[in-house]
Amino acid sequence: MPPTRRAARPISPRVALANAGALTGALAYIGLRDPHAAGFGFPPCPFRMLTGWNCPGCGGLRMTHDVLHGDFAAAVVDNVFMLVALPMLALWLVARWRTGLKLMPTSAVVVVVVATVAWTVIRNLPGFPLVPTFIGG
Questions:
Q1: Could you list the residue range(s) of the whole structural domain that residue 102 is in?
Q2: CB contact at 8 A, 59 and 132
Q3: Helix locations, 33-105, DSSP H
Q4: Contact 103, 112 (CB under 8 A)
Q5: Is residue 6 in some structural domain?
Q6: Mean pLDDT (whole number) for 85-110
Q7: Residue 5's closest CA among 100, 71, 104, 117?
Q8: 5 in helix, strand or coil?
Q9: Looking at residue 136, what is its pLDDT?
Q10: Which end of the chain, N or C, is more open, meaning fewer C-beta atoms within 10 Å of its C-beta?
Q11: Has residue 61 been placed in a domain?
C-alpha cells in the first residue's frame, strides 16, 4: 500500500512568527538561567514525584542549557535519549511534511512510544551509568 499523501497547507506567517518567538524566548531563558541550580523557576517533575523514577524528559532542560553552552558531554549525561531522538524526530517530521505524507502514521507512533518506554525503564535500572544529579533529590 503506498503512503498516504495529503495536500501540504501553507503555514501562516503569523503562526510561524509566533512559534519562532516562543521558541526563541524559551531557549533564551534556558540559556541565560542555569537549570542545574536550585531556584531555576520550573516545578519538579510530577512523574518523578509520583513514582520516584526519572521520566523520559528528566534532564531535558539541563541538556538544552548544556547544548546552548557547547557542553555536549554534560548534555549526554543529562539526557542522551532526548539529545539524539528529538533532532531525528524533528527532521523526519519536516521531511514528511514537505513531501505531503501523513506526519505520524500508526507505525511511527508505536516506535516513539516503545522507544520512550524502553528509555524510561533503562535509565532507571540500578547502576545505569548516565544518572543525572538532581537538585534537592
A1: 13-123
A2: yes
A3: 46-51, 60-68, 72-99
A4: no
A5: no
A6: 92
A7: 100
A8: strand
A9: 40
A10: N
A11: yes
HSE, CB side, 13 Å, CA atoms: give it for residue 128. 18
Examine residue 85 and state whether it is found in any structural domain, yes or no.
Answer: yes
Of 77, 83, 46, 49, the residue nearest 64 (C-alpha): 83
**Structural domain count, the chain:** 1
Q: How confident is the model at residue 6 (pLDDT cuts 50, 70, 90)?
A: low
Cell of 34: 542555569
Structure-model confidence comparison of residues 25 and 8, the more confident one: 25
Q: Residue 101's Cα: distance from chain center in Å?
A: 23
Q: Could you give the 3-state DSSP secondary structure of residue 101?
A: strand
Long-range contacts of 31-36 (CB under 8 A, 24+ apart): 31/64, 31/65, 31/68, 31/69, 33/65, 34/65, 35/61, 35/62, 35/64, 35/65, 36/62, 36/65, 36/135
6 in Cβ contact with 101 (< 8 Å): yes
Query: Could you tell me the pTM of the whole model?
Result: 0.79
